[in-house]
Specification:
This protein is mostly helical. It has four helices and two strands, in the order H-H-H-H-E-E. Strands 1-2 form a two-stranded antiparallel ribbon. Helix 3 packs across helix 4. It is rod-shaped and about 90 Å long.
């Protein structure tokens, strides 16, 4: 980073010397203006990538991964439901969890729904 800055200052100094200017006017330096635009674009892209990474990190913290062992009869029913819906058993369980709620008595309930 410091080497790039030093190189840019040297380029600006050479530009001023060649043009015979005593002060630097960015509007007269097409190469410098183009370089600054490219740096700003890279900075914006890096910020966008960082924001995406942070969002993924927040989402991953909220995810729940579990291993579930079901009785054979329950497993067969789940596989049958999943097969008829064209889904995997895991997808049906995920949708079941999405539709789960809790009533005023603290009981977990699931309203009827069609797996999609």
């Amino acid at each position: 980073m410091w080497a790039a800055r030093l190189e840019e200052w040297r380029r600006v100094a050479a530009f001023l010397e060649v043009k015979g200017h005593s002060t630097y006017e960015p509007a007269q330096d097409q190469q410098g203006t183009l370089g600054a635009g490219e740096r700003e674009q890279r900075r914006r892209e890096a910020l966008t990538r960082q924001q995406g990474w942070l969002a993924r990190q927040r989402d991953e913290q909220d995810e729940l991964r579990t291993e579930l062992w079901l009785a054979a009869d329950v497993s067969r029913r789940l596989r049958s439901i999943a097969s008829r819906a064209g889904l995997s058993p895991e997808q049906v369980l995920a949708q079941l969890a999405e539709h789960a709620g809790m009533n005023d008595d603290g009981m977990v309930t699931v309203e009827p729904f069609l797996p999609r």
